[in-house]
Amino acid sequence: MSTGAGSIGAAEITRRLAEICGPSFARFAGAADEVAGRLARWVAVPGGPRAAAEVLRLAARHDLSVVPRGAGTKIDWGAVPARVDIMLDTGRLAGVGHQPAASSAASSAASPVVEVGAGTPLRAVQATLERAGRRLALDPPSPGATLGGVLAAAESGPLRHRYGTACEQLVGLRWLNADGELVSAGRSAAELSGATPPVGLDLGRLLCGSQGGLGVLVSATLRAQALPASQVWVSRPVWSPLEVHDLVRAVFAADLDPAAVELDLPATGSPPRPVAAPAAGATSGPPGRPMSAAEASARANHPAMAGRRPDPLPVRGSAGELTVLLEGGRSEVAERADRLLAVLGGAASVAPYAPAWWRRYPFAPGDTALRVEAPAKDLHAAVYALRDAAGTPLSVRGSAGVGVVHAALPGSFAVDRVAGILAAVRGVLLARRGRCVVVAAPSAVRREVDVWGEAAVIPRLREAKEHLDPHRRLAPGRLPGGL
Q1: In this structure, what DSSP letter does residue 333 have?
Q2: CA distances from 432 to 98, 245, 299, 382, 458 (A)
Q3: Adjacent-strand bridge partners of 234
Q4: Model-level pTM?
Q5: How far is 186 from 269, CA to CA, in rounded Å?
Q6: Where are the alpha helices (DSSP H) in 131-240?
Q7: I need a surface site. Which of 7, 37, 117, 406 has the fewest CB within 10 A?
Q8: What number of other Cβ atoms are within 10 A of residue 332's Cβ?
Q9: Which of 401, 127, 367, 149 is nearest to 267 (CA)?
Q10: 434 in Cβ contact with 382 (< 8 Å)
Q11: What is the C-alpha separation between 106 and 272, in angstroms, rounded?
């Protein structure tokens, strides 16, 4: 039976966390230690999987909730957890191939698959692999994101078009369940020691997008790709979602094997947004009290705000842009680029570098950020529905080739207006097997709207939650359906 934290005191919990993690790696939470606006009570930074398991066992004994955190670049995404007792920072669950020696790491980098600690910054992984002429085919927009954070938030970038999401590229996965048991899944499971018997990777893939609600990711094994010899970006101005729809169809029909097909439609003529707007969910403090100046400053400088500054505002009537990335050998990329220029028309151009908006979200701090998913052939209908419901042009950006884009509703929109826009867009998407998810939002919006909408996966998530976290100690309330 749980004894509860109150029965032994907060100081004793802190002492025990320090015993597990080390004196410098356990503390009371501070102003910036929050999850979607909910402040944590403690922060623990375990030095490895065994220490992380001990943190989870301590939480189980005292009925404490645990929410994992990587670099914090997406800690404000998703639903507000019911409570956050211990924030488990995965920063020390890091490494490529879990090899301490540089030579061993290089050997791991040359392998067709690579095992990466969940707390490893993705850019560090790419730098290691690059020395062996390889890469992970992952390019999420969040600067500094860890691999575990990318998986937990189901974040993806332009390369999703050819290679799929990070979850789809998984070969193996290790995670800790709510009781601190190490679970392994997939191809690398037989090589791992100290784990429970391996389970199917399908169960492991449910952790993708679970925001820590099903387990604490320890490591992931993914396929490594050879670095392309050549990359070019072919761009063309676009003026409307329908024009984008027609051009994407033409690109597909030309059989050009693009690595990515990205869209940027700015909110032309929209009123300026403040550059130093508050963080999403930061217009007020935690439920029950106002935000202090220290909290406001901490949140404004939080890693979750990186990469979300608004781009320079376009002039009224300016065009958007459709950009196609081609990768491969130099001669064949040049040949495909020439063919693509003919497909896109005279206004198209080729560059050896990406446009400024590439791998950047269209939303800024304080906006209500949406992710719209639809079959690529129906994406234009979803964007028109979004703009019609809003009554104004909105910034839309993302992967037109796979039908996944992000959009920004200004933070000045009232809650009922946001709710009406969501209802209208979700109604259009329902008939097209699409969905609209609120990624991040001001606290008032997040409290009043359903951030997930219709989620067909809820029954399966409920089953997984009962299996992996029956007492609902892991990020309670973060999953669809309030799980």
Answers
A1: H
A2: 44, 15, 38, 9, 19
A3: 324, 350
A4: 0.85
A5: 50
A6: 147-152, 160-163, 201-205
A7: 7
A8: 13
A9: 367
A10: yes
A11: 48
In order of 25, 174, 180, 189, 306, the CA distances from 440 in angstroms are 29, 28, 30, 35, 14
Q: Write out pLDDT tens, residues 227-284.
A: 999 999 999 999 999 999 999 999 999 999 999 999 999 987 433 333 333 333 333 4
Are 40 and 67 spatial neighbours (Cβ–Cβ below 8 Å)? yes
Residue with tokens 């980098």: 109
What CA–CA distance (Å, rounded) separates 142 from 367? 16
Render pLDDT for 392-435 as a digit per residue (tens, 0 to 9).
889 999 999 999 999 999 999 999 999 999 999 999 998 888 99
Q: Are 140 and 122 in contact (CB under 8 A)?
A: yes
- 335 φ/ψ angles, rounded to the nearest 5 degrees: -65, -45
Backbone angles phi, psi at 186, to 5 degrees: 95, -165
CA-based nearest residue to 325, from 292, 296, 359, 364: 359
The answer to whether 348 and 374 are in contact (CB under 8 A) is no
CB under 8 Å to 66, separation ≥6 — which residues? 55, 56, 59, 85, 86, 87, 88, 178, 212, 216, 473, 474, 475
Are the C-beta atoms of 301 and 434 separated by less than 8 Å?
Answer: no
Buried b / exposed e over 24-59, threshold 16 CB at 10 Å, is: ebbbebebbbbbbbbbbbbbbbbeebebbbbbbbbb
3-state SS, residue 46: coil
Point out which residues pair with 113 in neighbouring strands: 223
Number of H helices, E strands in the chain: 14, 20
Helix, strand or coil, per DSSP, at residue 62? coil
Q: What is the CA radius of gyration of the chain?
A: 23
Give me the sheet containing 435-440, strands edge to edge.
349-351, 230-238, 320-328, 260-265, 395-399, 404-409, 368-373, 435-440
CA distances for 111 relative to 205, 376, 480, angstroms: 22, 34, 37
The amino acid present at 235, given as its one-letter code, is: S
Maximum distance among all Cα pairs of the chain, rounded to whole angstroms: 73
What are the structure tokens assigned to 355, written together? 């446009």
pLDDT at 100: 36
The token pair at 412 is: 């000045």
Cα 438 to Cα 446: distance, rounded to the nearest angstrom: 8
Phi, psi of 264 (to 5 degrees): -130, 115
